[in-house]
TrEMBL record:
Signal peptide: none
Gene3D superfamilies per record: Antitoxin ParD1-like (6.10.10.120)
Protein family membership: Belongs to the ParD antitoxin family.
Protein name, per record: Type II toxin-antitoxin system ParD family antitoxin
A family per Pfam: ParD_antitoxin
């Protein structure tokens, strides 16, 4: 089991009410459990954000490499708008 260490934190009263409410309703046995669950969720969300950022950076690098290699198309706003309309239409018919 992981080593347990005591940590004192300060929260706004609204957050304290949420933590206490979660314990009072029986969702969690203690305030510590609420905070641990919140931190696990935060770690997961943060990891996903880092993955998304890495993917975005990779896409940017790919785009820049395409520019350097001359693999470009003229910017055609009408084509992009039409493509967006088709995507939206397909979503609304499949929903």
């Amino acid at each position: 089991m992981a080593e347990i260490e005591r940590l004192t934190i300060t929260l706004p009263s609204e957050m304290v009410a949420v933590v206490k409410g979660a314990v009072d309703t029986g969702d969690y046995a203690s305030a510590s459990e609420v905070v641990r669950a919140a931190l696990r969720d935060w770690k997961l969300k943060r990891a996903l954000q880092f993955e998304e950022l890495a993917a975005l950076k990779a896409d940017i690098e790919t785009g820049l490499a395409d520019v350097v290699a001359g693999r470009l198309k003229d910017f055609d706003t009408a084509r992009i708008v039409e493509r967006g309309r088709k995507v939206l239409a397909a979503r609304s018919t499949s929903a």
